[in-house]
TrEMBL record:
The lineage of its organism: Eukaryota, Metazoa, Spiralia, Lophotrochozoa, Mollusca. Pfam families: ADH_zinc_N (PF00107). It comes from Magallana gigas. Belongs to the zinc-containing alcohol dehydrogenase family. This is Alcohol dehydrogenase-like C-terminal domain-containing protein. GO terms for biological process: sorbitol catabolic process. One of its GO terms (molecular function) is L-iditol 2-dehydrogenase (NAD+) activity. PANTHER family: SORBITOL DEHYDROGENASE. It comes from the Eukaryota. Its cofactor is Zn(2+). Residues 3-108 form the Alcohol dehydrogenase-like C-terminal domain. Coiled coil: none annotated.
Length: 149
């Protein structure tokens, strides 16, 4: 829903992006996802927790596929249960990224990934309120507060 974030994703190496409008249907966006990728994805990773995105994950994923929900969204989110069951989609959740740190550390160490561009704003401790306002505004990707100086 944010063209500037999609541009940022492209700069960080995303090969496919899709701008979703507020009036778009889950089914319509799922069709566009399939068109862009050339097929429905085997696995869909949903990281926002937004109701629309959770439903979209089910609609977009191929039958027999897997939807992984990462992070923490609202306390309660509904699923299109009939479609989930009919398509025999496996739903998995991940909150603390168990067993992923060794892989990430290795990828960082050998230069396979560069996370530095993700920190878009840096603040001193006395600028904490400004830092939180920036994070709340959605303009930053990752906002860092330096507590050491």
């Amino acid at each position: 829903i944010d063209a500037s974030r999609l541009e940022f994703a492209k700069k960080c190496g995303a090969t496919h992006t899709l701008l979703v409008g507020r009036d778009d249907s889950e089914e319509g966006v799922a069709t566009r996802v399939s068109d862009i990728l050339g097929a429905m994805p085997d696995r869909t990773v949903e990281c926002s927790g937004a109701q629309f995105a959770v439903n979209l994950a089910v609609h977009a994923t191929k039958p027999g596929g897997q939807v992984v929900i990462i992070g923490h969204g609202p306390t309660s989110v509904s699923f299109p249960v009939v479609q989930t069951v009919a398509k025999e989609i496996e739903i998995k959740g991940s909150f603390r990224y168990v067993n992923t740190w060794p892989t990430v550390i290795e990828m960082l160490s050998c230069g396979k990934i560069d996370v530095k561009p993700l920190v878009t704003h840096r603040y001193r401790l006395e600028q904490t309120l400004e830092a939180f306002e920036m994070a709340k505004s959605g303009q930053g990707v990752k906002v860092m507060i330096n507590c050491g100086q």
